[in-house]
Amino acid sequence: MNLGVFADKIGRGRNLTELAALGLAALWVLICVIFIFTGSGPSNGEGVGFIVGLAIVIVPIAVGWLAFSAARSARIVADESAHLQVALKAMRQTVLDAQHSGSLIGARADDLPRKLEDIAAKPRQNAEAPAVFASSRHPEEQLPPPAFHHAAPPARPMRDVSPRAAVAAPGEDQPSLALGTPAGVASGSVAVKDLIRAINFPENAEDEAGFDALRRALADRTVATLIQASQDVLTLLSQDGIYMDDLQPDQARPEVWRRFADGQRGRPVAALGGIRDRSSLALTANRMRSDAVFRDTSMHFLRQFDQVLTAFAPKLDDAQMARFSATRTARAFMLLGRVTGTFD
Q1: What percentage of the chain's residues is helix, strand, coil (to nearest 5)?
Q2: Which of 51, 158, 162, 317 has the fewest CB atoms within 10 Å around its CB?
């Protein structure tokens, strides 16, 4: 660790101390030599007097150097402490900067309902999610969970934010589609490019194209449910400092995603568990065990992602599938899927 001017001051102080110690030792030897050989000390260097003379010369020097060594050791400890303080401060600042830069997606997830409040009023599902991830692989058997357990007031009409015709206002007579999907929000009606951009969420508040794609995607009930579930999961993960932008998973080939959409499990789709960040995996697994709300939210998200992937996989070419798998929502699916053993 380079301390700059402080390191220069420490080096100069060390050199001065060593020079002073050497000077004092030399001065003491000179005084003792003069004292002994001028006749003031023991005569002729014989017997006990000679030994006493040597002790007079050597002992003070030895004691002085011991004191100097102790002082130097204390100074080294102080220097190392200063180095550690600087290093810890730098590490703390790095962590704070990383948390600040990574908190954008969490903030976006929290602000998303307010940003889209004037676009669509979409009821939250109240059905309680089961404790394990289960997937039906036949589209004709995949029934969406009931939106309500009791009667609810009709939703406000969507404001037209795309070239296609606006959704009809509630109260008008219109036929209902199969599987309980209202007219105008048929599953699979979202363009692929809008789906990919929507489940990645807008990059920032100025990402107009991202918000336009998100508004168009919310017109599809199944995709809208996935977006809401993804938002909930990303918000909960951000509470543990886990952000999808920080994860760099091993990307699986498009055919592996198609195998999963076709219902294959085990070794053929094991590459989908490409999240290798041990800290994120450990934190998520611990949260999954200890937090029932997080566990239920995660299972609901996994089911919704499975439904959307099954519906859209036949429409995606390899390049589109690669972009789909690189979205924040897909990374959350890879993380939670690996923790829950979905790819085993």
Answers
A1: 65, 0, 35
A2: 317
What whole-number distance in Å separates Cα of residue 186 and Cα of residue 240? Answer: 36
**Maximum distance among all alpha carbons in the chain?**
130
The contacts of residue 282 (CB under 8 Å, 6+ apart) are none
- Sequence-distant (≥ 6) Cβ neighbours of residue 214 within 8 angstroms: 116, 197, 198, 201, 202, 227
Residues linked to residue 176 through DSSP beta bridges, in sequence order: 182
- pLDDT tens, residue by residue, 221-258: 999 999 999 999 999 999 999 999 998 888 899 999 99
Which range has the worst mean pLDDT, 95-109, 119-133, 166-180, 269-283? 166-180
What is the CA 271 to chain-centroid distance, rounded? 21
The whole-angstrom separation of Cα 310 and Cα 336 is: 18
Cβ neighbors of 216 (< 8 A, separation 6 or more) are 161, 162, 190, 191, 194, 198
Q: Select from 216, 306, 225, 323 the least CA-distant residue to 269.
A: 306
Q: Round to whole Å and give the CA distance between 77 and 12.
A: 17
**Tokens at 141, concatenated:** 């058997």
Stated length of the chain: 344
